[in-house]
């Protein structure tokens, strides 16, 4: 109860204190509001304009997978499918790459535009810091990506936002084409190697077939049947001839079977390499937009910074609080008896 009364008393005392100094505080706050309005005009602060472009990331950019997927429907391989969180985060990382920043610096001559010259200390760090500070890339609540650029020139702000979107195709396409090209050349070498292996196996099979071994399983079955008939009929000449055939099959049959298995495996691998090479070639040569462009940036007709009302409110409120603090300190000092200062000086 006493604590509540004390709080009420302190609040009432503060109100009394403010009321006692109301004219001084009012004059200072009014002067602050006027000055903040004046100093936020274009005469003192260069206004800045904001432009925003909005894009969606696709689920995949593999042209081969999109175009060659004819058997089963897969949402991820649908050319019209929008990205989920993972692909969106990956695209945002690409949008923040140094390659895109360098392209903007060169195309818009930003060093001159930002009035940064090479003779200044750490001019490159200042240039990139200024550029990054004027660009904001974030994910929207609907899963899209917004690219916002702030600049003193509304046309440059919109052009830079649209250029970032355009550079996304260039950078992402280059990265993916480089990987597709590397995969293509690797598969090309694998195809050369497996073709050489197939030729080696075919040559070995030709040597074995020269001995009369063509199909081990079929031949051995038929020769055994004929051999059994010859034995049962007492045909020694035929039995000896068939025994010679069985000896050939025993010598070369196992090797022939092993080579035919290798031949089948290598031909399957050769077909797979050719199919994957075609996919890699499509990805390497194709050009498809790396994003869904929902909204292009346009030049703003209203400045984004400074906002005079906000500047006035923040400045006035800050000065109001500061005035109260200073006046409280002044009154506290005045309330100290002069005799106390004399005692302290004597001591």
Quick structural gist:
With about 350 residues, the chain is α+β, with helices and mostly antiparallel strands.
Topology:
Blueprint: H1 2-20, H2 22-39, E1 49-56, H3 63-68, H4 85-95, H5 98-107, H6 110-113, H7 123-133, E2 135-139, E3 145-151, H8 154-210, H9 216-233, H10 236-285, E4 292-295, H11 308-334, H12 338-346
Overview of this protein structure:
The chain is of the alpha+beta class and 347 residues long. It has helices at 2-20, 22-39, 63-68, 85-95, 98-107, 110-113, 123-133, 154-210, 216-233, 236-285, 308-334, 338-346, and strands at residues 49-56, 135-139, 145-151, 292-295. It has a domain at 184-285. It is built from twelve helices and four strands; from the N terminus they run ααβαααααββαααβαα. It has a four-stranded antiparallel β-sheet with strand order 2-3-1-4. Strand 2 (135-139) and strand 3 (145-151) form a beta hairpin.
